Amino acid sequence: MTSTDTFNALLLQKGDPRPSAEVVALNTVDLSAGEVLVAVEHSGLNYKDAMVINGLGRLVREYPHVPGIDLAGTVSESRDARYGPGDRILLTGWHVGERHWGGYAEYASVNGDWLTPIPATLDARGAMIVGTAGFTAMLAVEALEQGAITPERGPILVTGASGGVGNLATALLSALGYAVTAVTGRPDNAGHLEALGARSIMSRAELAARPSRPLLSERWAGVIDSVGGDTLAHALAETQTRGVVASCGLAGGTELTTTVIPFLLRGIRLQGIDSVQYPANDRERVWQRIGNLLTTEVLERCLAEEVGLSQLSQRADALLAGQVRGRVLVTPKDG
Ligand SMILES: NC(=O)c1ccc[n+]([C@@H]2O[C@H](COP(=O)([O-])OP(=O)(O)OC[C@H]3O[C@@H](n4cnc5c(N)ncnc54)[C@H](OP(=O)(O)O)[C@@H]3O)[C@@H](O)[C@H]2O)c1
Known about the structure:
Layout: E1 7-13, E2 20-26, E3 36-45, H1 47-53, E4 70-78, E5 88-92, E6 107-110, E7 116-117, H2 124-146, E8 156-158, H3 164-175, E9 180-184, H4 190-195, E10 200-203, H5 205-208, E11 220-225, H6 229-237, E12 239-247, H7 261-266, E13 269-272, H8 280-293, H9 296-302, E14 303-307, H10 312-320, E15 327-330
Parallel strand pairs: 8-9, 8-11, 9-10, 11-12, 12-13, 14-15
Antiparallel strand pairs: 1-2, 3-4, 3-6, 3-15, 4-5, 5-7
C-alpha cells in the first residue's frame, strides 16, 4: 500500500439532524498515525454502529469520522514489535469507531494494544459474524458462570433474542448445555431461535411491563438482558434465589426502576457487562473459547445479511427499528 493508492471508506460529516454518510476514496495519509496498519476484510453492524451513523448518544465528537466499532483482517504494516505483516487480527471496542476511526474502510490505523489474534478456529468472516455482539454475549455467559450458574441450576432467559447479542448468547449458552428461553417481539423468528438451540420462546410482551410485585415466581437461574428498562426489572423479579442477571444493553430503555427486594431476599447478583474496555490481556482467551464453542454452521445461521459500505445507512435504520435478525457482516471492499 503506497500513500497514493486509494481505498474505500464510509465517511460521516457533521449534519443536522443526522450526519451525512458517503463512500469516499481515502489513502493512508488520511488515517491517524496508529502503530499498526490493518487491511480490513470485514466489519459488522452493531447497535452502537447504528447509533453512530444516526448521530445518536453523542458517541462521536469529531467529524469527519469513519465508523465501525469492529474490524478483522491482516496486518499490513507495523511499528509495534508484537505484530508483523500478515498477522491475522481482530479488534472490538476501545472506542474505535467512536473516538477513533474504525472498521468501515479497507484500511485502519490502530493502536497495537487494541488487537487480538484471530483464533485458529475462526477466520475474519467468522470473527466479524461474532463481533462485539458475540464477544459481549460470551462475557455475559462468563458472568453467569462466575456466579456458579451451571446448566443444572435451571433455565436461562435471553432477552432481545433476535438481535446480535441475543442470537450469539442463545447459541453460546446452548453449546454449553444450558436451557435457553428466548424472548422476542417477533414471533416469526421462533423457528430461527430454536435452530440456534433455544428450548422455548417467550413473547416480549410478557416481560414488557414493570413487575406487579417486587418478587414474582422464581423462574430463571440466569438472565442475559439486551433490553434494559422494565424488561430488566421484570426479569429481576422472576430470577431464582442466588441467580445472576447480566445487563448488556438498552435496546428497550436506559431507565431501571426496581426495588432492592430481589437482592436482599433472593441474593440475586446484577452484573454489568462492558465489552469496550474489557482487559486486553484476557481477550485472547475469551475469543479462543468463542471459536471453540461455535461451529461454522451456527455462525452462518447467526448471519442475517452481508452488505457493502453504501448500504450501511439504510441497514442501520432497519437495525434501530428492530427489523434486523442476527448479525450484519460488512465488507468494505464492496463499497
Ligand atoms: N455492554 C456492552 O459492552 C454491549 C456490547 C454490545 C451491545 N450492547 C448493547 O446491547 C443491545 C443489543 O445490541 P445488538 O447489537 O444485539 O442490537 P440488535 O441486533 O438491534 O438487537 C436488539 C434486540 O432487542 C430487541 N428490541 C429492540 N427494541 C426493543 C424494545 N423497544 N423493547 C424490547 N426489545 C427490543 C429486538 O429483539 P426481538 O425482536 O427478538 O425482541 C432486537 O433485535 C444494545 O442496546 C447495545 O447497545 C452492549
